[in-house]
Design goal:
Layout (H helix, E strand, L loop, with lengths): L1 H15 L13 E4 L3 E7 L2 E6 L6 E6 L4 E4 L8 H8 L4 E4 L17 E4 L7 H4 L6 E4 L5 E3 L4 E6 L8 E5 L4 E5 L6 E3 L4 H18 L3 E4 L10 H16 L5 E2 L9 E5 L2 E5 L6
Parallel strand pairs: 5-6, 7-8, 12-14, 13-17
Antiparallel strand pairs: 1-2, 2-3, 3-4, 4-5, 9-10, 10-11, 11-12, 15-16, 16-17
Helix pairs in contact: 4-5
């Protein structure tokens, strides 16, 4: 089984790395760097880690007065728990935006528990079958109180059945993983799900003044905005109505053999997404 998982991860990596990979230019002080990951400061109590295995996969350390939240764990970052402890001394809880291996790779093994959206349990046998820690389930709308800092869970399925966004209402930003694609959305569910997610997130952003969402593959200038969310909602509606048709996807990996390229975003999908 371990060898099979390794093969799956290698295939997944080789497919993802076919995509254009712009070099990242992240503002903020570098607080840690090695051959696996570089961490930069976003603000006084928030950091972004840039992995080096899978198209600059991103992980985020969010610190409160009493606790810290680690959002995603990258592909394979050795001693990630020790790295995190060198940045924040607060007890850390690991949560995942979804279970793809560039977010829940072997790096999760050094953490005793991992919180995921229960809808993504379907991906555990393929992407993280060897995790020996306890898998716990997130609830839509629940709050992680870190002490003088609260992070709200918002389920945003589409990329995967259990994709999840984490919102800091006070800071006016959030962390969305691959929910909105980082410019290249892999839609493994369907356009109806994506449309509902975009409607939901657009309202959350409007109601709470959320300016931007840090994505799962952050290059420094590609934060998700409300406009991006609204553009994806419009694409979803037009695809479902038949007004907008995709082209054959020349890469077509993961069975996503159709492609819509509009409004600065690529949406990779299959015919199943139109049902």
């Amino acid at each position: 089984m371990k060898n099979l998982v390794g093969i799956i991860v290698v295939i997944f990596i080789s497919q993802i790395t076919l995509l254009a990979q712009p070099t990242y230019q992240i503002e903020g002080e570098e607080v840690f760097g090695n051959e696996d990951v570089v961490f930069h400061k976003i603000d006084e109590h928030t950091w972004v880690g840039t992995g080096k295995a899978m198209s600059n996969e991103s992980l985020y350390l969010v610190e409160g007065k009493d606790k810290s939240l680690l959002i995603d764990a990258g592909t394979n970052i050795k001693d990630l728990d020790i790295i995190i402890a060198s940045i924040s001394e607060k007890p850390v809880t690991l949560v995942a935006t979804h279970v793809h291996p560039d977010h829940t790779g072997p790096s999760i093994d050094v953490f005793p528990e991992l919180y995921i959206n229960p809808a993504d349990t379907v991906g555990i046998p393929q992407f993280m079958p060897n995790y020996k820690g306890e898998v716990k389930f997130l609830k839509d709308g629940e709050i992680f109180d870190l002490g003088s800092r609260k992070i709200e869970v918002v389920f945003t399925p589409g990329h995967t059945p259990g994709s999840t966004t984490f919102i800091d209402k006070a800071a006016k930003y959030g962390f969305s993983g691959d929910s909105f694609g980082s410019g290249n959305l892999l839609l493994t569910t369907n356009f109806s799900t994506l449309q509902n997610t975009c409607e939901k997130m657009s309202k959350v952003m409007a109601d709470n003044g959320i300016a931007e969402l840090y994505p799962g593959h952050f290059f420094g200038g590609n934060k998700e905005t409300k406009k991006r969310v609204d553009d994806l909602e419009k694409i979803s509606k037009e695809a479902l109505s038949g007004e907008l048709e995709g082209d054959e996807n020349p890469q077509g990996f993961m069975g996503l053999n159709l492609l819509i390229n509009r409004d600065g975003v690529r949406v990779n999908y299959s015919a199943h997404a139109l049902k």
